[in-house]
Model the fold of this input.
Amino acid sequence: MKGRELARRLADLSGFEDPSPDREQYPTPPELAANLLAVARVQGDLDHPVLDLGAGTGILAIGAALLGAPTVGLELDAGALATARENAARAGLDGPAGDAGRVDWIRADATDPPVCTESPASTVVTNPPFGAQRGNEGADRAFLSVAADVSAVSYSVHNEGSREFVEAFAADEGGTVTHAFRADLPIDRQFEFHTEDRRTIAAEVFRVEWTDRDESG
Done:
């Protein structure tokens, strides 16, 4: 499936029904998801199990599954998780457990996931909270910390200007930023503190290698 076709299919998915400002629940744009996953496919990262941390309504997890990766989506918000399941069914990804091209959903805190960390072999994808809300500062750090523990490679979306932070964090955890690209996050008015009908936020996507897959078996 080509990137344009993937973006078109992802654009048909439903967003948050009742988004939470405290959790910074904003939809991941289909084009951003498709571009991120296109890089992951070229790098061979979709040949390994994919874990979507803070899956929201499932766009990254569903995109990975549509490209053939065995995928698990972790999401704590019950409403968002219900929408993710509906989206997966709409995309034809609700077959029996173990089927190729299926997403398995787990309701869990993405910063404290119930997954094994002894032999990382998965690819993590995540569009975490940026930490823009008061009391939520540094939220993306917690997601990166989990990615370092459970994956060999991660793809994460961050606020523009985060490269120095991501590179320093990765280096402290024995990782390396191998790819970075800019992305736009168009945000429609959805919370009372929004003053514009639509605003585009500049963001960056980073690919980090946390371990050598050959060593992780």
